[in-house]
Amino acid sequence: MKFDSPATSNPIDRGRVVGIPQDRIDGPAKVTGTAPYAYERHDAAPSAVYGWIVGSAIAKGRIKAIDSQAAQAAPGVLGIVTHQNAGPLDKGNMNTAHLLGGPQIEHFEQAVALVIADTLENARDAARLLRIDYAPEKGRFDLAAEMGSAVAPETGFGGPADTRAGDFDAAFARAPVRIDQRYTTPDQSHAMLEPHATTAAWNGDQLTLWTSNQMVSWSAGDLAKTLRIPKENVRLVSPYIGGGFGAKLFLRADALLAALGARTVGRPVKVAIARPQVPNNTTHRPATIQRVRIGANRNGVIDAIAHDVWSGDLPGGGPETAAQQTRLLYRGDHRLTTHRLATLDLPEGNAMRAPGEAVGLLALEVAMDELAEACNVDPVELRIRNDVQHDPEVGPSRPFSSRKFVECLRQGADRFGWSRRHPKPGQVREGRWLVGMGVASAFRNNLVARSGARIGVDGKGHVTVETDMTDIGTGSYTIIAQTAAEMLGVPLAAVTVRLGDSRFPASSGSGGQWGANSSTSGVYAAAWALRGKLAEKAGFAPDQAVFEDGMIRQGNQSKPIGSLAGREGLWAEDQIEFGDLAKRYAQATFGAHFCEVGVDIDTAEVRVRRMGGAFAAGRILNPKSARSQVIGAMTMGVGAALMEELSVDTRFGFFVNHDMAEYLVPVHADIPEQDVLFLDELDDKSSPMKAKGVGELGICGAGAAVANAIYNATGIRLRDYPLTIDKLLERGEGSALA
Ligand code: MOS
Fold first, then answer.
1. pTM for this structure?
2. Which atom belonging to ligand 1 lies closest to the Cα atom of 244?
3. Catalytic residue check, 573
4. Which mutation among 192, 284, 696 tests ligand 1's pocket best, with the greatest number of atoms within 8 A of CB?
5. Whose CA is nearest to atom 4 of ligand 1?
6. 459 to each of 527, 569, 570, how far by Cα in Å?
7. Domains and their CATH numbers in the chain
8. CB–CB of 255/247 below 8 Å?
């Protein structure tokens, strides 16, 4: 099915199952421990043995020699894989090129060996006996120091490095009110609950990989290419995933090394990347340096806006596209955005939840708070004054498909009690606490991706859906079941959903918050095909048949759909393909974040007291799981604002705090109250579901609302994240802090 003109009325609009808050249908399997994760496939690979990854002890240089004699002779050891015996690997693919290092070393903790033994303990012990001689070289580890050598990246994201409209320099120079500030965000780690893990088994030349991966079809292709085998020979199975946040968009070392290890020892091998290895071995969200300039009139109306972004990555890597939202969020005739990419020899930078906007808004939305203050305009009102209903770089010829941004600001402010905010910082005191409120806009692009599914009904009227779509803790199982139930007029309990197997039709996968909208649209397309087959069997006209209560109806005739399915059941397969509506219309999701913090007047400890947000993201397919997505992402926004930072050792080039004891993320006690409002919205240009995504929207801007609340509480404006106690205390003198 091709989606190339706006959706008209369709069966999803009935809203009997779709749009109703539903418990996750995979919930019982998750909480009873019966959902098998990649490392637990004892059922599928009972004879599996254990691999332990050895990571490089240097960040850059070369392996001179490997002495594996002692390791090889250690108890239980079955084999050792290094670059010397791994066989030829195709390293032409950036997604897998760094997964096995040697002789060249590209980053610290890059996998250089896999030691395989009968038990995990034996593998880990033997790994310590491996002797590797390195010839280290000087590396580049400091983004600020490398800014001068940064270049405009050619590729790496869906847009040019730079955009321009009007004449920014002239307009900025003549603007009566000017903001020109620099902000920094640190390297961050995804910190998902389940580390990367794989069980691999070969059967002849057929490889099966039970792994934890967001993008089954991409990754099966990447692995086949790397191993130089046909894609059909790789089966990738990823039905349950303990979080990804972008860390599992691509295969990591566990997958490649499990495959190589299983080939070496001739039996299935399991490999998990140990938690302390994750931050340096795998990908992370790269640090940014950002300059935001805004020129406005005295009423705060923007005439000129510029956002310059610097980030770094390994050679061949891509930039952090932190100026993305600045291209679309606010009005202004004179505009400039730039991205510059430095070469760094740190571990690979890559996508983490809302790559681009998540950190871009940490800068832009503080700059907007600074503008509001400079113009003496309320920060909510300032954003409303700068709303624009079309792509401001292009003009009215490219309108937004839907944009309820102003409604989010107004309704969010009402619910939060924004009118109680004192406009002057440092004025509200409750006991030890200085109290302040902040607001920030939420914005995330709406992306869509081709997605396929197969759907069948059996003789009892039970419906089964198969697609390689993944559920990374987001609720895909449930919204896919809701879609199938709505389309075929059966209850949710009459639907079984099978996900995450490369033998099923290729889907959009889970990434970029495109998964929910795209994958359910693929199910919608397949369900249309099945409805056509059922109508034909019933002798009804496909466009007049109504599906409800397990029946197909036309006029006063009806038949149970199960009775039409026959003994083998009736199946149909299709995919949704998106035309150019995403080019003709700017498509994005919107929201407004509100936050109230308390700052301890003596210790400068920051406590988030409440958060609230209003969001517009098209049809909300399952308000219950959508809310979970948004509150989880708001929580990550609090982490970005207050605590998350991979500390770089710029001498040796690695992240020092590479475990969950020292890489701090918010816990329940840090998040007392979160209120989420979804606005009623249907986006008929986005998909037949009229939905968009919410998986990333909630993190976008949340941290800036915290930062702005801290300013309102204390009068201290911090621009280098995370906003920790030491930075507040350093600036405490003359502020409201004692
Ligand atoms: Mo996302 S950062 O595309 O999982």
1. 0.98
2. 4
3. no
4. 696
5. 246
6. 17, 6, 9
7. 2-35+449-581 (3.30.365.10), 376-446+587-730 (3.30.365.10)
8. no
